[in-house]
Amino acid sequence: MEAARKITIEVPADLLEKARQASGAGITQTVRMGLQLLAASNAYARLRQMRGKVRFSRTLAELKADR
User: Torsion angle of alpha carbons 6, 40, 22, 27, nearest 10°?
Assistant: First the structure.
């Protein structure tokens, strides 16, 4: 496991409770899940920007035939 960093944050109580109910986890795990989702959404946004800019050497038909 990577080195963890202890932080203190202030969040609205109702937001934290909604997030905890949605995750079904405790406070720490809920905050971790939220941070992971935020980091993933940034990665997905960068991938979407590449749409149509990457050329593949195989056609869609070849990929389907390879299943």
Answer: 0
Query: What's the pLDDT tens digit per position in 13-36?
Result: 999 999 999 999 999 999 999 999
Domain residue spans of the chain: 13-65
Rounding to the nearest 10 degrees, give the CA dihedral for residues 37, 14, 23, 11.
Answer: 40
Global pTM? Answer: 0.64
* Whole-number Å distance between alpha carbons of 29 and 34: 9
Cα radius of gyration rounded to whole Å, the chain: 19
